[in-house]
Amino acid sequence: MGTAASSSTSVLTVEIVSHFLTRGIVSVSVNEVEALRELFNKLSSSIIDDGLIHKEELQLALLESSGGDNLFMNRVFDLFDEKQNGVIEFEEFIHVLSIFHPAASLEQKIDFAFRLYDLRQTGYIEREETFADADADMDGRINKEEWKNFVIQRPQLLKNMTLPNLSEVTTAFPSFIFNTGVEDSFHQHNVDVPRRR
């Protein structure tokens, strides 16, 4: 029998995984969500211990420095912060990381990369460095279809959009493989749990 805290965590994990499975976002396992929860907890307490990831904490995790203003980091944070409330909650964290999962579709990766480079959120990439090659209709802007064609011809642009180890995150946090009661909770809630092969 688990404690009340572990029971509520199990129910939350069931809800999160069920949400991702029903929306067809990506097929994540319970152990992957639990391992990402542990990673989230470590990141969210690295500077401010409040259960939320602040911009400085994400910058510390990705750039190993929490100081200074970084345009790229600001944009990445904005994409993680889907609710635009200045912090990253666990559901936002897992949703964005699912895009980097090996099982995520090419379309999801293309869309995320497009949104990353669409700095002013106009629906177009307007950076001069990419115009010559990507702006097929020569209108001075790159729309999503032009971007898609551009990155399909240059797969190296999306190379960093897959984190191969993300599907193996449970090995980094092995305590979840043996100590989680979540899978049992899934069966109590009649949720199909994808089995790892």
Automatic annotation (TrEMBL):
GO MF term list: calcium ion binding; kinase binding
Pfam families, alphabetized: EF-hand_5
Gene3D superfamilies xref list: EF-hand (1.10.238.10)
All copies of domain EF-hand, residue ranges: 68-103, 122-157
Domain of life: Eukaryota
Alphabetically ordered keywords of this record: Calcium, Membrane, Metal-binding, Repeat
Biological processes, Gene Ontology terms: calcium-mediated signaling
Coarse class of the protein's main subcellular location: membrane
Keyword Metal-binding: yes
GO cellular component: membrane
Protein location: Membrane
SUPFAM superfamilies given in the database record: EF-hand (SSF47473)
Family assignment from sequence similarity: Belongs to the calcineurin regulatory subunit family.
Function description: Acts as a calcium sensor. CBL proteins interact with CIPK serine-threonine protein kinases. Binding of a CBL protein to the regulatory NAF domain of a CIPK protein lead to the activation of the kinase in a calcium-dependent manner.
Quaternary structure annotation from Swiss-Prot or TrEMBL: Homodimer. Interacts with CIPK.
Protein name (database record): Calcineurin B-like protein
